[in-house]
TrEMBL record:
This is Alpha-ketoglutarate-dependent dioxygenase alkB homolog 3. Dioxygenase that mediates demethylation of DNA and RNA containing 1-methyladenosine (m1A). Repairs alkylated DNA containing 1-methyladenosine (m1A) and 3-methylcytosine (m3C) by oxidative demethylation. Has a strong preference for single-stranded DNA. Able to process alkylated m3C within double-stranded regions via its interaction with ASCC3, which promotes DNA unwinding to generate single-stranded substrate needed for ALKBH3. Can repair exocyclic 3,N4-ethenocytosine adducs in single-stranded DNA. Also acts on RNA. GO terms for molecular function: broad specificity oxidative DNA demethylase activity; metal ion binding; mRNA N1-methyladenosine dioxygenase activity. Keywords: Cytoplasm, Dioxygenase, DNA damage, DNA repair, Hydroxylation, Iron, Metal-binding, Nucleus, Oxidation, Oxidoreductase, Ubl conjugation. It comes from the Eukaryota. GO terms for biological process: DNA alkylation repair. It comes from Chiloscyllium punctatum. The lineage of its organism: Eukaryota, Metazoa, Chordata, Craniata, Vertebrata.
Amino acid sequence: MISSCSSEHMCYGSEEVRFTRVMADKRQRARVQGAWANHSKTTVRSLQVHRNSSANVAGTHWLPNEQPAADGRFVFQNPTEVQRKIPEEKTIDKEGFYEISSGPTGVSRLYLKPGFIDPKEADWMFEQLYAEIPWKQKSNIREGRSYQEPRLTAWYGDLPYTYSHTAMKSNPHWHPLLIMLKDHTEKVTGYTFNSLLCNLYRNGKDSIDWHSDDEPSLGQKPIIASLSFGDTRIFEMRKKPPPEDKGDYTYVERIRIPLSHGCLLVMEGETQKEWQHRVPKEYHDRNPRINLTFRTIYPETQRN
Ligand SMILES: O=C(O)CCC(=O)C(=O)O
């Protein structure tokens, strides 16, 4: 159960729920999201953490190494391995600013505003965007192989945008509704944007995998303002692990944010350097969702 919280703070659940969620999430991810989760290793570690939860000290604890002696009694031996605790996943679903991490180079900050667009307005906007944006399926390249991105996209901006090793051509012909939404978003956030990536998730099978919006063209600390229309999808975030974990995401912090019809999410500061995000597939009926992510693309001569 998620405890109630003020809009300025994240919500935390109980230890039991956390464990159940971690296990359910591990099972779900192992089943549906493919190979990134090391299923057998993380399951075993989760069970050990649960068994020793009362001995937890400041996020880590020792797992005694119990061995049967020759006469059948169990004798205590010195611990051989530090067991680490998997951080509880947090949910952000209320309006507010959230500092999700802070490091030597600055903070990673989110701003969420459900109902940024009035629901009735958002209804006709969705219809217009769905019908009038020139949606296309992009080909990406991963590990030298080309694949079709499982969603439709459109790009607006004076400069091209390259991600996943393929470019979207510049397109200066903004739809009037997009100009209106850009102006409104700029007025409320105080930021300016010169580009827009539009995403259409046709159903629950459409998704975007873990990534950061950290292409050099987006500058040092990209500010991304994201508007959602249509069905709610879960936007998941995970912190990048420290170098000593060598790419193992088992113990990283995780956040889930349901992005609902008409909501605004802003990511800023170090968020793209420190965190990854994705919209995972969902294996139950999902209606279409449109996502508009306003950004600033810098020409090569202005990048630092
Ligand atoms: O659909 C979303 O909310 C996120 C889209 C996204 O992460 C991206 O296009 O970079």
